[in-house]
Amino acid sequence: MKLIKNIGVLMMFLVFGSNIAQQHLDPEYVKVTNERAAKIVTKLDLKNEAKEKAVSNIIAQQFRDLTEIQDGRDAEIKKVKEDTSLAKEKQNEKIDKLKANADKSIAKLHKSYIKKLSKELSEDKITEVKDGMTYGVLPITVAGYNDMLPNLTAEQKDYIYKALVEAREHAMDAGSSKEKHGWFGKYKGRINNYLSKQGYDLNKESKDWHERVEQREKNKVKDSTAKE
């Protein structure tokens, strides 16, 4: 009985502790996360007000939970850097540990987040949420590679897509727009290395592609002017 009572007390502490942590968030930031989540959900076109609200709350909470972990990590790193009593090697060791612990917490949160979404949405809709959280970089980049390299094989297309999916999983958890784009940049580097090994001269392909896109835009202007 004592064990059960202790577990009950612990659970209450965790629940109330979480609520207290949320209360300390800047109301303006809470408003921003709610708006960001609502914008993503609107594009899902769920046609169900209750579900829209539930999904929006899940997404907004994910933004806030990520911020809590990342801000806590950054604050601790700042303290370590300011501690002049620590040798540089010891500082780096502590910073690496703080980052590793934060990464573990974020990975756990990521898994829990997808599980929550899966109770409300289909796989296709979850994919739309992921794209919404990462500015649609994946579909835009896939379309770009296909347009630049129209002769890509099925295997090459599959490699590009899977690499970008992996990038998106990381980008979803990034704390800023710059970091999100940084993850895609990292994986685009891998894709470009892969394509170079496959025999593509990407400098030439990119130059030719930009010329084609430019010509397309000129043709659109001509067509629009002719119709007037």
List the helices and strands and how they pair.
Blueprint: H1 2-23, H2 27-44, H3 49-82, H4 88-118, H5 123-133, H6 137-148, H7 154-171, H8 177-197, H9 202-227
Helix pairs in contact: 2-3, 2-5, 3-4, 6-7, 7-8
Please characterize this protein's 3D structure.
By secondary structure, the chain is an all-alpha fold. The protein folds into 2 domains: 124 residues, no CATH class; 94 residues. It is built from 9 helices and no strands. The longest helix is centred in the N-terminal third of the chain and has 34 residues. The N terminus is likely disordered.
Tally of helical segments: 9
What is the percentage of strand-forming residues? under 5%
Overall, the morphology is: globular
User: Topology as H/E string?
Assistant: HHHHHHHHH
Cα Rg: 23 Å
- Low-confidence parts: 1-23
Question: How many structural units, i.e. domains?
Answer: 2
Q: By helix and strand content, what is the structural category?
A: mainly alpha
In a nutshell, what does this entry contain?
By secondary structure, the chain is mainly α. Helices cover 85% and strands 0% of the residues.
Keywords:
228 residues; mainly alpha; 85% helix
